[in-house]
Every structure is written in C-alpha cells, then in structure tokens.
Sequence to fold (477 residues):
Amino acid sequence: MNPPALALRRINWFHYASPQTFLPVAGTLVPWFAWAAAAFCAAGLYTGFFVAPTDHQQGEVYRIIFIHVPAAWMSMFIYLVMALWAGVGLAFNTRLSGMMASALAPTGALFTVIALWTGSMWGKPTWGAWWVWDARLTSELILLFLYFGFMALHAAIDDPRRADRAAAVLALVGVVNVPIIYFSVKWWNTLHQGASVGLTAAPAMAATMFAGMILMAFAAWMYTIAVSLHRVRSIIFERKRDADRTVQYAKGLRQ
Amino acid sequence: MLAILRSAIHRDLLLAWRRRSDVATAALFFMIVVSLFPLGLGPDPELLRRIAPGVIWVAALLASMLSLNRMFSSDLVDGVLEQMLISPMPLALIVLARVFAHWLISGVPLVAIAPLLALQLGLAPDLLVVLVGSLALGTPILSLIGAIGAALTLDLRGGGVLLALLVLPLYVPVLIIGSGALESAAAGQSAQPHLLLLTALLILAAVFAPWAIAAALRISVE
Fold:
C-alpha cells in the first residue's frame, strides 16, 4: 500500500474536470486574464501606432497587421484547441471538455471574421481589390464555414450532452480535413492563376514592428482565455439552471 | 461476415429499386442544375467549354447531397438502426456497406449521365474518360463524408440545410482535385496526379470515415 503522504501528493488530473470545482477557479482567473489582455493590448497598440516606423513600401496601411496577423494566428490555433478539447471530451467522457470546446468556437469564429475583415481592408489599398481568391484567404473563409458548422450543429441539438458529443465528432473530422483543405486550396490557387500578389515576399520586419505584433498576439491569447473561461461559466450556469427548473417542475407535478 | 454485408447492400438496393423515383430525382436535379448555367451565362460555346468541369463537379456535389438526408432517417423510424447498433458485427463495417450501397444508388447514376452533360457543354470528347474517372473516384468520397453529416444531423429539426452547412466545406478538396483533373487534361497535361490524389483521398476516407459515422450514429441514437 502507498504511504498516505505519497497518495496525497499524487495528482488527480480529473479534479478540475468537474464543473462544480472548476466554476470558482474560472471565476478567479477571468479578471486576471482580462486585465492582462487589456495591458498587452494597450502596449501592443502603442508600439504599433506610435513606436513602429512607417513602412517604406506600403506606408501607414501596413499597420493593420498588428490586428490582422494575431487574429489570423488565433483563428487557426483556436480550432486546434477546440478539436483537442473535443477529443478529450470524447475519450474521457468529461463534461467540462465539451463545454470548453463550445465556449471556444464563437471566439474562434470572431477572430476568423476579424482576420478576413482586416485583410480585405488592407487588400483594397494594397492590391486594389477587396477580395482576391488567394490560397490563404480562401482557406480562412472555409475555416469560418467550419466554425459556423460546429456552432450550428451544437445549436440544433436540444440535449446538451448529445450536442457536445456530436459537435466533438464534427470538430475532429474538421481538424483532419483542415490540412487537406489548406493544401488543396493552395494547389488550386497555383494551378489557376499565376502569383499575381506576393504575400510571402514580405520585406524584413523592423524589430519594433515585430514587438508590436507579438504584444498584440499575447493580448489575443489573454483575451481568448478570459472570454472562453467566462463563457464556460455561463454555460455551466445555464445547464444548472435548466436542471434546477426540471427539478422544480417535477416537484410541482407531485404536489 | 460477408453475408451480412451482402444482405445490407442488397436491402438498400432493393429499397431503392422499390422507390425508383427517388433515384431518378437526384439524377434529374443534376441535369437541371447543369442546364441552368448556359441559361444564366449565355450560350457562348467557348465560355461553356471552359466552365464545364467546374459546373459539372459543383452540380454533382449538390446532387449527391440530396439523398444524404434519407440515408439513416427511415432506419431510425423502423428500428433497423437500433438493430445495427446492437448487432455483434462491427458497426463501422455495416456502415461501410451502407455507404457503398448509397454510392451505387446516388453516385453511379451521376457518373453515368455526366458524359452526356459534358458533351452538351462542349467538352472535348477525349476528356470524357477523365471526367468519368474523376467522378467515379470522387463521388464515393462524397458519400463517405456526407454520411458523417447525415449521422450527426439524424432526427434534427432543419436537418437538410444544416447537413449542407456541415458537409459542403468538407467537400472542397474533392471539388478542387476533381475539377482540377479535367482542367489539366484540357490544358494538355496529364490528369494522373489529380486522379492519384483522388484515390488517396478515397482510401483515407474509406478507412477513417466509417469510424466517425459509427461514433456519430451511437451519439445520435443514445
């Protein structure tokens, strides 16, 4: 038998997988991450708009990258994290994982929209068109559709457990497809039109530009964590409220 | 084991034969969608010849999606689906047989009609082999991916539109590679790389999709 000290020290990985124990932890963490997001955002925007030099080719227009690039990074990364939680939820049957996945989806979709929106605002003055069927734009658009599909499937199923698990299967199918979609779109793009716009041939970046972008990326991370924790709390509360109502209703029937 | 697979396929084919009009509807839809493009774009033969691969492939995508909705829903109503779930046979294997039957019913007619529509749009006759080959390799992938969506949206309100939303983004690689095969053949290059990629996708989908379909069915029926 294990000595008691050792047994105590053994980590229970599933301790915080229960919504009840996770709820207060998430509640204390949310303000910290929110303030960190605000601080990083302020520092990043200041660096981006006042410290970083004007680009000698693109002028001031390039400053959209301080929002555009972190948003594009997050849009792809959140899908991976979402699929990871979905897989954990299916494998270990933990309720919180499904909630985490559905809490991440709207933020991921938001960053995808921001990336597309700012990209098109940058594209108009630089390329002369709001939209180009470039490989990156197209695969980002399809990523947006994948987020919408995930959220629509989750919303269409009334039973929250079934919704979590069905959406989890979809997220896993999606994550297997994302690289296939990306490479097929890239291939399609090179097949159909010559490289009219050189996205990859970016000039070497000034250190302050890079710093501004990294600060904004941290801000996006902190924001995502704060918002998704907050959303998980709301989901826990909502499901508890529904359960409480059912109990009340059942009591009412018995009287 | 093979007997059960054969009986699953036989049952689906028999059901389809008894309801022949359902099969014809998807094929007619395919023909009508393709005929809409010349009406919308004008009868310029040069333009039609250029867009023919894409038009035929997009129409095939939409037509193969039509019958997905019914793939498992009648089985849910009459209890066959529950029998599938509790059967000692691996569910993934039964599902693979069902998907194969679905492809025979909904995919093969599209492959058969496509050359006719391609000639209407003025595609060069020597490209028809590539067209039939790419569709024959691509439509089973559509059935496999579509079945995942059908299993996930089983018995949901607004299932049809939701199914389209889930499945169409996942169809993108098949569309790109399938119509790409024709494009490169039309440009005088070899279509072989595209067809090989389609084969690779087909193998990948045939190996992994049945597991996802089986998991989705278990979630939906519980």
